[in-house]
Each structure stands twice: as C-alpha cells, then as structure tokens.
Protein 1
Amino acid sequence: MKISKFIKNSMIDFPRRIACVAFTNGCNWKCWYCQNSQLLQETEDKTDELFEFLSQRKGWIDGVVICGGEPTIHNDLPQIIRKIKEMGFDVKLDTNGTNSTMLKELVEQKLIDYVAMDIKASFSKLSEITLNNTKFDEVEKSINFLLENKVEYEFRTTVTPDLTEQDILQIAKKIKGAKTYILQPYRQPDFLKNAPKPLKIETIKHYVDVANEIVPTYLR
Ligand code: SF4
C-alpha cells in the first residue's frame, strides 16, 4: 500500500478533530465522476514522508483521515493504521464499503475511531455509477455492520445528476436507524468533456427533506 499524497491540516474532514488527510492509491471501482481518478494509477509513495510529518506533529493535530482511492483494497492497511494509532492519533477511515471483513477487523481491533462510508447510489444504480458489477453484497454487509453502532460513523452520498428522489429514498430506507446521513453536491469533473451539470441546490435540499423523514440527513 502506498500513501500517494497527504494534506497536512484539515479542519473539515474529521469531526471534532484537526486532521491530516492521507490518500491511498488504487480503487476497485471506477465511478465516472471520480475526483481522485489520478490517484487510482499513482505510483509515487509518500508513506515515509507522512510518518516523518506525523512524528513532528504529535500534540498539534488530533487525527489522520485515511481515504483514497479505496484504502481497504490493501491487505497491509491494518498495519499502517496500527502504526498511526501507536503514535497517538485518532483515525478516520473513508471507504466505499466493499471490504466488510476488513472494516469489521479494524473496528474490533479498535484501530479506527470514525468511519465515513460512501453509498454511491441506490443498489439498482450502483453499476451505472461505479462502472462495476462487483462487491455490492459487501456494501450491504458493511452498512449492516455499521448500523450495529460499534464505531462512530456517517453514511454519505454524492448527489450526481443520475440520482432521483426515489434513489435517495431507497438509500435512506437501506440505512434506516443510522444517526447521520450526509448528501453532498457533485462537482463537475475537469477531466470529463461534456460532464453533466450538477442538480440545482434546491433539488438537493428537497432530497435532504425526503431522506430526513427516514434518517437524520444533512447537506454538506
Ligand atoms: S469509489 Fe471513490 S475512489 Fe473509487 S472510483 Fe469511486 S469515487 Fe473514486
């Protein structure tokens, strides 16, 4: 596993913590709008640089966000996280939920303090958005595991123009019982010519209201 890049300080990526954000390379999906698509092929390895930075920042930052790409495709993710935890930092994992076994293992070993799980679409549209047909059963298992409340978590969906009110409703029903569901507007990717325009903010606010009938939902 490689850390392809990291942001030294963020106030917005880890609830209640000042955090460093570390991006892992590679992903098992190919979402058409992926803003981190360059990381999926990234070869640079900044893992040593990250640990050097963290060793100088003890007491200055509270946590580390591990995102991607998709971190859980890497078998050595638990070792990297353990090293970060041993330095005294809290860890947040951003995941697409496709490796429920590793997610469980990380929680049970108390290696992560917070999980943000992306639900890319209603299950009937997952392949359309992720350009993939694999691991959807894992997504379901990860949702059910997080709903057991063994770790603090949030579910979130990037509201691409493909998603209708019905899609958001289906997702909300799937995660019924969760404490937090976040809807975030999609940004037109620079790398895509003729990328579809984002939905109007009023439409997304309406989606928030619709989902909020089932699960506490917020716009980010
Ligand atoms: S799961 Fe995330 S990192 Fe992977 S392709 Fe989709 S948006 Fe990109």
Note: The two ends are 30 Å apart (CA to CA).
Protein 2
Amino acid sequence: MPLVTMKQVMADSLKRALDPKEDPKERYAVGAFNFSTIPEMVGIVEGARSKSSPVILMLSLGALKYIGSLELVADTAKGIARQYPEVPIVLHLDHATDLEMIKHAVVVGFTNVMIDASQEPYEVNIEKSKEIADFAHKHSPRGLDGCSVEAELGMLAGHEDNIVVSEEDAGKAYTDPKLVPRFVDETGIDALAVAIGTAHGFYKAAPKIRFDLLKEIREVTGVPLVLHGGTGVPEEDFKKCVEMGMSKINVGTGLKMVYTDAVREAIRTLPETEYDPRKIVGPGRKAIADEIAQKSVLFNCAGKSEAILKSLY
Ligand SMILES: [Zn+2]
C-alpha cells in the first residue's frame, strides 16, 4: 500500500466534524507522531495497526537535521507503508519555513507538508501558504493532489526547533476566527493548524484551551483543523476537542518521554554484559507502540482503518 495523503485520511473525520447532526461521540481525530529513528517509525505504525487505526508519521526539522535527508525519510516511510498495507499512513513534514525545502519534500514523496509562516504578517502568511499549496497539489510524484498542505494561523507558545514563541506572545496570538475564511480560500490549503491555547513541549501548568475559539473557527471554515502541542493536554480536553471537530492532533514530546524512559529502564535492568542494541532499543519501540495504541483509543480513531482504505481503493 502506498502512503496516503492527509486529505484522504481525514475525509471521513472531516465529514463527521462538519455535520451538525453527527453524534459528537462518533467524531474522531487522527494522531500525528514525531520520530527521529526507524525503531520509532515502526513503533508508531505497529501501535496504529494494533488498533486498526490510521496514523501520521511526523518529521520535525530537528529530526530531519539529525537524519540528514528528506529522501531517506520518504523512502523509509514508503517501505514501511508497503510492509503494513492494512495501516493508512501519511508522511508529514512539520513546521517547515523554507519554501524550497518544502517543495523538495513534495517532490520526494511526502504526502502532507506544513508551511508555517504564522510568525509572518497575515498577507505574507497567505502568500507563502498559497505558493506551497499550489506547488504541492501539482508536483507530487503521486500526481495531482498527491500531497496535501497544512498551514498555521496564530502562534503557539513553546519551542519548535527553529521557531520559539514565548507563552506571553502566544497569548496575544490566538487564531482569530475572522481571519480564517479568507486565509483558507485564498491559499487553497487542505488543513489549518490553530492556536487555541496549547503549546509545544512541556507545560508549566495545564493548558487552558479556548474551546469558545475552537467552536467559532469550526463554524467558519470547511477544512480539517489541527491541534499542535498535544503533550500534557488532559485527556478530557482532548476528547472535548475531538467532539468539537478537531481532525488531527500532533504529539511529539510525550512520545520522546515514553521511548527514553523505556530505553533507560532497559539499560538499568539488563546485565552490563548485554550489548545487543535490539534488547535496549526494542523496549523503546514497544513503549511507543503502546502509547500510540492508547492515543488511538483516546482520539477515537481506533477501528477506522478499514473504512478509510475501502474509500480509497
Ligand atoms: Zn506544532
């Protein structure tokens, strides 16, 4: 099975999010999870498979720097997708700012790219996001609409590799619902990342999510909405976001924690004569799979794979 686009994987979730008659409990979001090594990629996909859930493999610029090549990531993800044909898998480049690099990701086969020009003035954000949407919809090796595009309006607090926003600044920069319709229409993007109170990395205190804003934004646009900064958000708040129509949820920091904790535990408990990396990294991969399985249930996308695949092929 080839990689699928975010737009394809989210069509059903979006339909449910937009239908006012849909039971909120039937709505679901698809999880996007960061990785920087192959065991993490495989752990993410195995976790999704265990719950018959679609999944989004998410590459940050930091992980890209570490791995060194967009081609290597794309080819690895394509190989994993062939190995796990029962899992709808999207390969997503997160928070990219360099237009040429994003175009390169499209050309090598990423199936979702995020142009983050949210720190630029509104007009520049529109211009750059439109340039990427136009390019991605035409130039994917998978043909027309072979790669979908996510852009951001408003700023999230925290650290995202090349982008740092203080919590104070972010407070002033929630997504303004009034700016959403023109942004979506003029850019032609496929999904919108919103700033409604979450932050990247760890929280000093539990985040206060602006559900009022989420409601307003959901009402003024027809594209899927994306929640960034998913680590440390209370489970109840995740559920509420999903019930109110959030279609994609990004989780990064939380995964690094479960992976590293498991590896640390393996090193602590194994005899010093144990040198097999599989015995050390393996528990990390398993811990990630367990975490993804749990998130799939929380985001209510467990059991959705089959219907998504049926709609595609
Ligand atoms: Zn993010």
Note: Residues 29 and 247 are 4 Å apart (CA to CA).
